[in-house]
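Pipeline run #58 for the internal structure catalog. This entry was flagged by the ingest filter as a single-chain record with no existing model, so it goes straight to prediction. Upstream metadata was stripped on purpose; only the residue string is passed forward. Reviewer on rotation: M.T. Logging verbosity set to normal.
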Amino acid sequence: MRLALIGLAALGLTANAVSAAAQPKVIELTQVPCQFLESEGGKDRGFKSAKAADCEAINAKNGKQRVAESKTIELKPGKYLFKVTNKNVPYELGFWLRGESRVDRARLPSVSGGGLTTGKTQDYAIELKAGSYVYSCPLNPTPDYKLVVK
């Protein structure tokens, strides 16, 4: 251990700096009925949903426009922890981050999971590579919001 610390010191690094560099960056996302708040500029559109079909109908009307107006998340390659919260959606939600196109899905990492009951926050860890991604919730059907890693 002492030899390792001496080696780090020779490089001008401390054990704390190395430890901090290894920590994933945290991205917080909040789901409300039919949308992710942060993706839509923090604007809660006040949608009401008791089941997935409600969001499907809402998104059929305005989902494409909302995605066009939404903020694309831009990140650098590296380790990330997506902290996703179910805020006031009365049924179980999930999260799915994947490559945007069929080719991207085959070559880029993805992460998904469910179990997000009302008020719960869940973590999704992933190491992102350069490319184009989308993220959504298939259970609270949201639009496919964009994320770019470069």
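catalog note: Residues 1-11 have pLDDT under 50 and may be disordered.
catalog note: The helical segments are 2-10, 15-22, 52-69, 102-107.
status: ready for reviewer M.T.
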